[in-house]
Amino acid sequence: QVQLVESGGGLVQAGGSLRLSCAASGRTFNTNAMGWFRQAPGKEREFVAAITWSAFSWSAGSTYYADSVKGRFTISRDNAKNTVYLLMNSLKPEDTAVYYCAATRHSYATDYGLYDYWGQGTQVTVSS
């Protein structure tokens, strides 16, 4: 079983930045991609970003972003620490949601149904 723990959420004003972290443990060797999803109140969970996962710390991961966050958010990884990050810049009130880290055996998966493991979520609130 893979365990994922998110951190870094909080309250920030529009235009500000936050960096979310996702620490992974357990059977991560079957993981091919790590992703971030978010869910706002009354809305369905939506894809935010994903990065390919590798046991090689020197290898660069391929990334994918939802159109709504492209150019503002950056996903990165630190394999040595088994950690994935989501740097969120130029935050908007529309970004307010619970952000979830997830792991999948698929590559470049954007559907939440394709992810096998999930973190507990961390709240991000962006005020006007």
Q: Can you offer a commentary on this structure?
A:
It is a single chain. The protein has no helices and 11 strands. The radius of gyration is 14 Å and the shape is globular. A hairpin with a 6-residue loop joins strand 4 and strand 5 (46-52). The protein is mainly beta and 128 residues long. Helix content is 0%, strand content 50%. The strands form 2 sheets. Strands 2, 4, 5, 6, 9, 10 and 11 form a 7-stranded mixed sheet that branches. The model has no long low-confidence stretch (mean pLDDT 92).
Radius of gyration: 14 Å
Helix content: under 10%
* Morphology call: globular
What fraction of the residues are assigned to beta strands by DSSP? over 45%
Care to count the β-strands? Answer: 11
Summarize the main sheet: 7 strands, mixed
Order of helices and strands: EEEEEEEEEEE
Report the uncertain regions.
none
